[in-house]
């Protein structure tokens, strides 16, 4: 990882979408930064632009205006191939719906992400096994996603997100589909991750303000602006 104080810098970011003859201004000028190793939660009502902002930071979309820097590198306007390569190496994603491939075991799911990150088949399998064991899934390596509980699937998804040692972990409502007890276990796992990876920067979207209070800082997105 680059030796930078701010892992993430977002400056003047705007994003809009055409809706028939109308323009929907989702983000209207976002400015914020995250220090290396910091954990930030973004809260806000549905439709406030939280997922759009996460997609822009994750290089899944481009902003209409503004600059996004990750580890000092401007990723605002890089091409699709460069963005995909950057994501594989530098960014980990955790989704509300897990996004595990149903036809693969969880070991194969995590190993595949490691292969996309450049590891050999042998090294990818070893790395995947180590991470799955570390998140408490040692007895589930050969199980497919539909054979796991929601909490177990999310643990597998977190292992996949970490397999390439990302600088930035983006989590979109990681407890949204879980009951309160399982959600608490997942958040505790994030807390433990920070102890083992002090330079890992986490940006999380959540509707749960109690869980958001566990982060280093919380920002609220209202009508396309951070408050």
Q: Describe it for me?
A:
The longest helix has 17 residues, at 180-196. The protein is α/β, with parallel strands linked by helices and 227 residues long. The mean pLDDT is 92. The chain has helices spanning 50-57, 80-90, 106-116, 121-134, 150-162, 180-196, 209-212, and strands at residues 6-19, 22-35, 39-43, 65-70, 73-74, 91-94, 168-172, 201-205, 217-222, 225-226. Strand 7, helix 6 (180-196) and strand 8 (201-205) form a beta-alpha-beta unit. Helix 3 (106-116) packs across helix 4 (121-134), helix 3 (106-116) runs parallel beside helix 5 (150-162) and helix 5 runs parallel beside helix 6 (180-196). It contains seven helices and ten strands. It is globular and about 50 Å long. The chain has a six-stranded mixed beta sheet with strand order 6-7-8-3-9-10. The protein has a four-stranded antiparallel beta sheet with strand order 2-1-4-5, with helices on one face.
């Amino acid at each position: 990882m680059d030796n930078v104080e701010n892992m993430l810098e977002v400056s003047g970011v705007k994003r809009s979408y055409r809706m028939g003859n109308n323009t929907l201004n989702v983000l209207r000028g976002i400015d914020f930064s995250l220090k290396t190793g910091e954990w930030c939660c973004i809260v806000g009502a549905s439709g406030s632009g939280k997922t759009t902002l996460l997609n822009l930071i994750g290089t899944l979309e481009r902003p209409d205006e503004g600059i996004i820097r990750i580890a000092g590198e401007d990723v605002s306007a890089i091409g699709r191939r460069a963005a995909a390569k950057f994501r594989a190496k530098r960014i980990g994603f955790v989704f509300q719906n897990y996004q595990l491939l149903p036809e693969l075991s969880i070991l194969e799911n995590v190993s595949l992400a490691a292969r996309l990150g450049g590891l050999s088949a042998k090294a990818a399998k070893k790395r995947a096994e180590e991470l799955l064991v570390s998140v408490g899934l040692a007895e589930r390596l050969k199980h497919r996603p539909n054979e796991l509980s929601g909490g177990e699937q999310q643990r597998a998804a977190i292992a996949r997100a970490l397999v390439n040692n990302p600088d930035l972990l983006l989590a979109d409502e990681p407890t949204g589909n879980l009951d309160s007890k399982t959600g608490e276990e997942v958040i505790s796992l994030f807390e433990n991750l920070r102890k083992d990876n002090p330079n890992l920067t986490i940006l999380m979207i959540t509707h749960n303000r109690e869980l958001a209070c566990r982060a280093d800082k919380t920002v609220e997105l209202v009508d396309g602006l951070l408050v």
